[in-house]
Amino acid sequence: MKFPVYLDYAATSPADPRVAEKMMTCLTLDGVFGNAASKSHSYGWQAAEAVDIARNQVADFIGADSREIVFTSGATESDNLAVIGLAWKFQGGERNVIITSAIEHKAILDSCAFAEKLGFQVIRIKPDREGRVTPEMLREHLNERTLLVTLMHANNEIGTVQDIKALADTAHEYGALFHSDCAQSAGKIKIDVREQAADYLSFSGHKLYGPKGIGAFYIRNTAPRPEAVVHGGGHERGLRSGTLATHQIAGLGLAYEIAGQCFDEENARIRDLRERLRHGLCSLSGVLVNGSLRERLPGNLNLTFRGVNGEQFLLALTKIAVSTGSACTSASVNPSYVLKALGLSDEEAHASIRFSLGRFTTEEEIDFTVDYVKAEYLKLKAKGSFWK
Q1: pLDDT value at position 49?
Q2: Is the pLDDT of residue 327 over 70?
Q3: Which of 93, 158, 178, 226 is the most exposed place for a label (fewest CB within 10 A)?
Q4: Which residues are catalytic?
């Protein structure tokens, strides 16, 4: 085993070696290094072909048309394009309400806060105790003034999966558009835009064994085009300007193709490992699961360890790499806003740890983690409760 044992795949995943090798072929003079926008020579043509192949790989992965895929710098930019791009497009119109949830990624919550500055009303639905937003909960807030509903497919902290098909259908009953952040769910939960009628979807590369700094935005061909957030050059049909990063795009495409090929087998194995970890740790008194057990990402396990100081506990776990929540807010000393929205106290939220498993997690690593975390938890707990 390599120490510390890596169990923070929800923060980022290592690139698959096949993806890294593919990217290398797009970086040097004897490879496909050209600018895809260069139309006057073979270097540009080769780069454009590599981009087209990747666009088709991503489209095939979700059952879309390749013309519905726009490459971005990541899911954060895609989220901004969906929320702020649509807010700019429809600013001053009759539809001036955006609906989201209180447990969305900061890329959505901060974009919605910006939309408020543009004059939009933002409704943030509080989910149930397991982090779910039901169609009935959504319907309570929908009306003819709703422009957009944006609800993530799977939560990055607690792993709860939303029924985006039902939620999108509910939004459409009122003429609202529907967007979902699929950064965490892609490759773990089936996504098929022919069955799930979302108008916009956001994707990331580095959450699925691809490179960082690259993502994709799906826009249904019948949906309104958002206003561009990044300007200059008119790349990606005017939706996202900037020289296309051929090596990152090629890596993203291959990563999604590989994920589709091993989807069932890989997720079944990871789910079994997660359950092995859950049964091992939840055998301890005072350890509770956060989020839904049934509607959950296969590799996510968020646990509250009652009776200990969460910060001290995490600092004691030097032989494993885990987190207390989203990597985007890990520098904050505040308790997780996601867990707080579920009803946990500050102390419970501070004493919660997210374990996230992935393609390279082994049974040996899980067994080690169970024994190691048990020992450290009981050791700290024996010193007395640090909760106020």
Answers
A1: 98
A2: no
A3: 93
A4: 328
